[in-house]
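pasting for the record
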Amino acid sequence: MTQLFMTHPGPLSAVVQAPLADGLVLRAATEADEAAIAAVLAESFEEEWDTARVRAEFSDASDVPVTWVVEDEQGVLGVASERIMPDTYPDAGYVHYVGVLNRARGRRVGAALTVRCMQGFGDRGLSTTVLETDDFRAPAVVTYLRLGFVPTYRSDEERSAWSALFPTLFAPKR
């Protein structure tokens, strides 16, 4: 597994909200959502998440001004947060932990959450957006490319991972 870095060069003012399917609502998360966010992230990333970790990574994190969720009548389907790290990424916002439940995949939930974060960064006066993803998350990579993100090579290992990934993204479906 190789981490891949992507940059959206902007302008963020031109980013248009991705439409959501009927019955889906995008809103700022609250403390009451922490258990649902943990469940989404546990399923999305196949790792341990609980409310304490959600509080540490999102709710109580000084560099995360807002976390966004998409929900339907059954509850939270997806999550992403805006992270601001000026010492590491000057003038850029960092899209932090985009996670979507399996039952909501293909409904553009991840795209809507990512775009909402980008709009938030623009509202904060930032000019670009960055994110990291994994080389095995092909559907997420395709979403980010469609939104205007471009690969940013930080190492030869990343360059090689992108070179191996690109043919699989655009290969004919069997």
